[in-house]
UniProtKB/TrEMBL annotation:
Keyword Acyltransferase (UniProt): yes
Residue ranges occupied by any Maltose/galactoside acetyltransferase domain in the UniProt entry: 5-59
Pfam families hit by this protein: Hexapep, Mac
Keyword Glycoprotein among record annotations: no
Keywords for this protein: Acyltransferase, Repeat, Transferase
Protein name as it appears in the record: Maltose acetyltransferase
GO MF term set: O-acetyltransferase activity
Similarity comment: family membership: Belongs to the transferase hexapeptide repeat family.
Organism in which the protein naturally occurs: Noviherbaspirillum autotrophicum
Amino acid sequence: MKTEKEKMLAGELYNPLDRQLSDERHHARLLLKAFNDTRDDQAGERSRLLRELIPAAGSGVWIEPPFYCDYGSNIVLGDKVYFNFNCVVLDIAPVRIGSRVLFGPAVQIYAASHPLSALDRRTGLELGKGIEVGDDAWIGGGTILCPGVRIGARSVIGAGSVVTRDVPEDVLAAGNPCRVLRRLSG
């Protein structure tokens, strides 16, 4: 029988009130509070806290506080990823970010979801769908990435977009809902 965490990571309905999951979220909240309270002259402490929060982070990752996530342990970051201020990652499903990806301020990454049926929502069970962002992508400020989307390598998402579907590689896409505007070269 699967644990609630195994169900969560597999994108199945799971109980978010499970003791293990509650404890892991609590631990992440404590790390986030400490990280978000650091000063600019405490780069070493920020780095230490981020390594504990997001163990699968590559080298040269920089996240401007405040930053928020559910677990941190379900986030995989490539090298030289940059998150500007006020970003949120609801990582109840795997969130995989390639190398050299830039996130503008207030980007929201929502791997978390709820059942569409009101009867199913009454059970309190939740689910999620993983999100992927390819190498060298740039996600403009205020963008929302919805559950299950994939952003192709080298693509640019315009500020304020709501990404509800996959975006291919090497394109400029924007809007609500986000749509491809044109191909990018080089």
